[in-house]
Design a protein that fits this description.
The complex is a heterodimer.
Chain A: E1 4-15, E2 18-29, E3 33-37, H1 44-52, E4 59-64, E5 67-68, H2 74-80, E6 82-85, H3 97-107, H4 124-136, H5 151-164, E7 169-173, H6 181-194, E8 199-203, H7 207-213, E9 216-221, E10 224-229, H8 231-236, H9 238-245
Helix pairs in contact in A: 3-4, 3-5, 4-5
Chain B: H1 3-25, H2 28-53, H3 61-75, H4 84-106, H5 111-131, E1 141-142, E2 149-151, E3 154-157, H6 162-185, H7 187-197, H8 199-205, H9 209-235, E4 237-238, H10 245-258, H11 265-283, H12 287-301, H13 308-314, H14 318-333
Antiparallel strand pairs in B: 1-4, 2-3
The chains are: A alpha/beta, B mainly alpha.
Chain lengths: 252, 334
Amino acid sequence: MHDIALRAAGLQKRFGGLLAVSDVSIDIRAGEIHAVIGPNGAGKSTLINLLAGELLPTSGEVLLNGVDITSLSPDRRARAGLGRAYQKTTLFAQFSVHENVRLAAQARSTAPLRMFGGTRCDRPYLQLVTDAIDRVGLSARSQIIADKLSHGEQRQLEIAMVLATNPQVILLDEPLAGMGPSEARGIIGLIASLKADRALLVVEHDMDAVFELADRLTVMQDGRVIATGLPQDVRVDPGVRAAYLGADGGIA
Amino acid sequence: MSMPNLRVRLFGIACLAMAIALPFCVSTYYTQFFAKALIMGMLAMSLNLVVGHGGLVSLCHAAFFGLAGYVLALLSPRYDAASLLTTLPIAILCSGTAALLIGALVLRTRGVYFIMVTLAFGEMLFFFFHDTKFAGGSDGISINIRPEIAIAGSQLLDLDKPMTFYFVVLGFLVGVIALLTMVVRSPFGRALAAARDNERRARSLGFPIFRLRLTAFTLSGALAGVAGYLAAAQFGFVAPQMLGWHQSATILVMVLIGGLRSVTGPLVGALVLIGMEEVLKAHLDNWKLAEGLIIIGIVILLPNGVRQIWSMVFGASPQRAAEIKPAAAEARHA
């Protein structure tokens, strides 16, 4: 296994006259949480969409475990081992918790589109489903329709679905958005537990959470990377302090 | 097996027993009438794979139905019977291929655009048969002699007997129900429903949405071909109207009356619509007006289709009730 699980090199995305992401290079290592921060409009969400394949870059390339995936569609990238959770919760709202997670596992099973046989037969992935639901702490709620869950539980379900696809790289777009402090604590603990055998990229606004979780930090502004490195180094970087942290009221 | 599940099975068996007993209890006219109704039910069920389970409202379904009818008409010798065992597979293949080709183009669009583009392709086929002379043009063509089921020259079943024909239709119907039930419950069917519920999420999980929908669209078209072949064999006549958008819309109404969320709902919808027409025609001059008002009433009072009556009478299991409610909400949004 490569040390660098996901690498973006010289990524650029132009929307007409607007350069949303400009010459961004980022390395995400296995076993690490890499946080991306920056003010609104810095290009963080565009970056995640470029990495996940929902947007194609104007130039630059994306490598997953050393393999070029720049031109792969989102579903091909998912099958290659890239999992993502959305900023705005996007679930199969009319299906139960179990069915949501089961579908996620099915997508990565050996015959995801088999047309015969039910879904309840003893498939290896059913264990994966139960494990993912247990891991996020939703076992007692597995028969509830996703629509009826609280906001925090829906975020937990999002993560369970990503887990069930058994990805090597996980992209999380603002996993704590709209969450109360106590709900957030649970999710932070959960995210921290995910990095053992995977690489994580987390975009997040909550600075306390970022400094608690991140092994490595990248700061973006106006579509560019202005600093990247270990959190303690980035924290004292004069450029970052001036451009972002200082304006934000300071967190040192 | 849970109690509601057992009850559903018993109900299904009772329906099948009634369907088998029916031709022995009614006149030849009604045997033919019910054979026609079951064929339309088969057609509506095939459409529902795309509309109800796939979430794609198609207005060219009659094209696949009519195409199979034309295939039989064109393959039938003038003074001899065509063999069902060879012409039916050819008809299914033609309808399936047409669905594959049309699907490969129309499935690149979404929402209202999908509806309009399917309409356009359906009309294209309609005018192809309407305005060219090779298949009888606007007059259509007759099938003088019904196809026969024969192996090595000895006839197995005489399709000229209305009762035999009825049982052949019933056999195909049971087969189509079994096939659709299997597909809907399979991983494929669940993935298709997931793409209906949230396409973006389904794609990010790794489901190939286009291939998924194209497979469903093709299968749906091929099954419409079975219905089209049987309809042409029964009437002994095909005309461009069989492919037109008016026919497509009628099938869609059957699906809506019967309910989108089950395999056999559209069959119930077809029986209700055709049965209602039969009764109204006999008693009223302005029967279309009455029919329209009744359909509006059904859609308003039973947004999940007439099959909802079943759960009202027998009580629904909590899981089904939970699945039904969002479906109703969706129907109102649509």
